[in-house]
Design goal:
This protein is α/β, with parallel strands linked by helices and 276 residues long. The chain has 2 domains: 2-94 and 243-272, Rossmann fold, CATH 3.40.50.10860; 97-240, NAD(P)-binding Rossmann-like Domain (Rossmann fold, 3-Layer(aba) Sandwich), CATH 3.40.50. It contains 10 helices and 12 strands. The protein has helices at 12-22, 39-49, 72-77, 96-108, 124-136, 148-161, 175-182, 226-233, 242-257, 263-272, and strands at 2-4, 31-33, 52-55, 69-70, 82-86, 89-93, 116-120, 140-144, 166-170, 187-190, 216-219, 238-239. Pfam families: SDH_C, Shikimate_DH, Shikimate_dh_N. InterPro entries: Aminoacid_DH-like_N_sf, NAD(P)-bd_dom_sf, SDH_C, Shikimate_DH, Shikimate_DH-bd_N, Shikimate_DH_fam, Shikm_DH/Glu-tRNA_Rdtase.
């Protein structure tokens, strides 16, 4: 089951059920809209009735106090997207970083070690993936977030764990700083929820994107967004969040079942799925 608020856009059920069906396990994966004030009650339901859960916005950090154990990497990042439930005990893990790593390699074929990375947004996805990329040896991580204090919190943790890593923070409306960053960025990761809803504004001033920039643009949203449209107009290398969802979902499936994830079947399930 996947939970979130909002959640109707999710294609995870089609993707995950394709994997379960591939292994002859039926279609047990569902979807539930869980608001923040309902999270505690849902966790108790899951503890008694489910074997696994995926979480998306806004539950990735809020769920941690309810868990019995947490994977060290997920605890460091302060973000959990996968629950593994056994004998009434709940273990939290994050597959977001794994998913982003493999999505970037799949879409752009550019090495991550030594790369410069800029994140727009400092929520759960940025928390998990920034620490994962730092462990892979990127040279710099820059984080732009409306609440700079949240970006600073991630930055301080990154500096403590990776002293050689260059880290900066700013607001996404600080256009002068973002322009400087983009000139030294290999991968631009849009990690906010902007774009999930029709009429959402762009996450930053899209006029900052120039065709001569050498950056690859990855939007974690897997539907058309203003950022994706602008990047394609400028013929910049660009990808949406589909591959990240598929790869992180594949890792979750393997954690729940111990079986190999059938990536081709999961891709077909994702493409055929219709949002609820």
């Amino acid at each position: 089951m996947v939970i979130g608020d909002p959640i109707a856009h999710s294609r995870s059920p089609g993707m995950q059920n394709a994997a379960f069906e591939f292994h002859g396990l039926g279609s047990p994966y569902g979807i539930r809209h869980v608001r923040p004030d309902e999270l505690g009650g849902f966790i108790e339901f899951a503890r008694a009735n489910l074997k696994g859960v995926n979480l998306t916005v806004p539950h990735k950090a809020a769920v941690i106090p309810y868990l019995d154990t947490v994977d060290p990497a997920a605890e460091t990042a302060g973000s959990v997207n996968t629950l593994i439930i056994e004998n009434g005990r709940i273990h939290g893990a994050s597959t977001d970083g794994y998913g982003l790593e493999h999505a970037l390699l799949e879409n752009f074929s550019r090495p991550l070690a030594g790369a410069g990375v800029t994140f727009i947004g400092a929520g759960g996805a940025a928390h998990a993936t920034a620490f994962h990329l730092a462990a892979l040896g990127v040279k710099s991580i820059r984080i732009a977030n409306r609440t700079v204090a949240k970006a600073d919190e991630i930055a301080e943790k990154l500096r403590r764990l990776h002293p050689a890593l260059f880290v900066e923070t700013a607001r996404p409306d600080d256009s002068a700083t973002l322009a400087r960053w983009f000139a030294d960025t290999d991968f631009l990761i849009q990690a906010t929820s902007l774009g999930l809803k029709a009429g959402d504004p762009a996450p930053f001033d899209l006029a900052l994107l120039k065709p001569e920039l050498k950056l690859c643009i990855f939007d974690t949203i897997y539907k058309p967004t203003p950022l994706l449209a602008k990047a394609r107009e400028l013929r910049l290398p660009v990808a949406d969040g589909a591959a990240m969802l598929i790869h992180q979902g594949a890792k979750s499936f393997e954690l729940w079942t111990g079986l190999s994830a059938p990536l081709d079947a999961m891709r077909r399930g994702f493409l055929e799925a219709q949002p609820c």
